[in-house]
Amino acid sequence: RGKRMQRKDSVPNISFDKIGGQQRSKEELKEALDFLIHRNKIREYGIRPIKGILLSGPPGTGKTLMAKAAAHYTDSVFVTTSGSEFVEMYVGVGAQRIRELFQEARADAKKNHKNSAIIFIDEIDVIGGQREGAQHREYDQTLNQLLTEMDGIATDQEVQVLVVAATNRKDMLDSALLRPGRFDRHISVDLPDKKARVMILRMHTENKPMAEEVDIEQTAIETFGFSGAQLESLTNEAAIYAMRDGSVVIRQEHLSQAIDKVMMGEKTDREATQ
Ligand code: ATP
User: Fold this and answer.
1) Chain center to CA of 94
2) Residue 3's pLDDT is what?
């Protein structure tokens, strides 16, 4: 109990160039992270530290990857949780977990001789959604604790903490979270365009036995609207089709079958939740 949700990777080994596309988002994020890297300078100028960065965009677009790359870029330890871990917790337990999360982040940084820690909160909307009535009291306390912890972040602390949160429901967030000094940097992480899909497909086929005939450009054209996660899944499915066929290489037809499969899968998922 308790420790399960705090998976610690120390400093993740994911750099920004492992993320395909997202050029603008990466630039914006790096710009914000430079404040963390140059925190002494920031302090000299009396600039307020960046405490929270909000990544918003559709599922599977690489928000988690971006958060990990942020930790890699700033040489920070990485501590992660998700809003969904706070569902159905007793009143007070969520707040306690938030406290522990910040303690863990600081302790982990010290243990690893790092100056900074990034706390990643996926699905922040679960705990930070607009408050409606008394039925969400446990989330209220959790959210209040998060705000208190963030308000307590200062540039003169031994370990600089930065909270990166992700959501695909930015419109749902409580305005208290978005105030200056909290999540006041917003970076949108969108679905990849064709060029980005080519890059992502290349990344995920690099270590696979692709047939000469395989046309990544064409595959990118046929995968309009796919997220990075779907593209990754598509390359994996194509490999499975090839293996089932007893083919030593992955051919275009396997990719086509996999496109259908990923598209159908999405459809069944949607139908199931309707
Ligand atoms: P969710 O909102 O569903 O949590 P997410 O936006 O956090 O999703 P990730 O978990 O970062 O998405 O991505 C899932 C997987 O999809 C990654 O591990 C990676 O394999 C692949 N992926 C997603 N986006 C990209 C990208 N831009 N470049 C390369 N791979 C990607």
Assistant:
1) 21
2) 45
Instruction: Return the structure tokens found at 131.
Output: 């408050």
Contact between residue 11 and residue 124 where contact means Cβ atoms under 8 Å apart: no
Collapsed DSSP state (helix, strand, coil) of residue 4: helix
Q: How far is the CA of 60 from the centre of ligand 1 (A)?
A: 4
Neighbouring CB atoms inside 10 A of 174's CB total 18
Cα–Cα separations (whole angstroms), residue 130 to 13, 102, 204, 248: 35, 23, 38, 53
Q: pLDDT digits over 19-64, tens only? A: 999 999 999 999 999 988 998 888 888 888 899 999 999 999 999 9
- With a threshold of 0.85, tell me whether the complex ipTM lies above it: yes
Pocket of ligand 1 contains residue 49 by CB under 6 Å: no
DSSP 67-127: HHHHHHHHT-EEEEEEGGGGTTPPTTHHHHHHHHHHHHHHHHHHHTT-SEEEEEEETTHHH
Does ligand 1 come within 6 angstroms of the Cβ of 149?
no
Residue from 7, 54, 65, 202 to probe ligand 1 pocket by mutation (most atoms less than 8 Å from CB): 65
